[in-house]
Write a structure and sequence with these properties.
This protein is mostly helical and about 150 residues long. It has six helices and two strands; from the N terminus they run H-E-H-H-H-H-E-H. The chain has a two-stranded parallel sheet. Helix 4 packs across helix 5 and helix 5 packs antiparallel against helix 6. The longest helix is centred in the N-terminal third of the chain and has 31 residues. It is globular and about 55 Å long. About 25% of the residues are buried.
């Protein structure tokens, strides 16, 4: 009976984590693509592209806008940590590199969508930082899994 209760409890926990993950995905898409200025009338008309690595951050640093720099730079990493962690947690078959590749693809889809719909700026920086966040999340989850396995939790 205890193993049934434990399994049911684990299933509910898994379902809760999956629900939270989808809420995270919706929030991520809301802040990156489906912003207040999103409009189908902007398709392929207002897209902005910046392919110069980290060039948008330099003026913030030079202008003394350190907090804005931290918010944007670190934010682009932090927003993708849950993706890497979830992918490794949900499917133990996902390697860190496979999860990171999925992060690259999702980030690329977001950046291309921003360009197509004319929201925000499509930047190579975001691709690099989002990928870094996915990698960090995947590595952190592997570390947690290893600790739990060693402690047999």
């Amino acid at each position: 009976m205890k193993s049934f209760e434990r399994k049911s409890e684990q299933q509910r926990f898994g379902q809760l984590i999956t629900l939270l993950f989808w809420i995270y995905v919706i929030a991520l898409l809301r802040i990156t693509v489906f912003r207040d200025d999103f409009s189908l009338s902007h398709i392929m008309t207002n897209g902005k592209l910046n392919l110069e690595l980290f060039s948008a951050y330099i003026p913030f640093l030079r202008g003394g806008f350190i907090w804005l720099f931290i918010y944007l730079f670190v934010g682009n990493i932090v927003w993708f940590i849950p993706l890497g962690a979830y992918l490794v947690w949900k499917d133990p078959g996902h390697t860190v590199w496979r999860a990171t590749l999925i992060g690259v693809v999702l980030s690329l889809v977001i950046e291309v969508s921003q360009y197509i719909f004319g929201v925000g700026v499509t930047e190579v920086d975001d691709l690099v930082l989002n990928t870094t966040g996915t990698l960090i999340g995947a590595i952190l989850m592997r570390v947690v899994q290893k600790i739990m396995k060693e402690r047999k939790l």
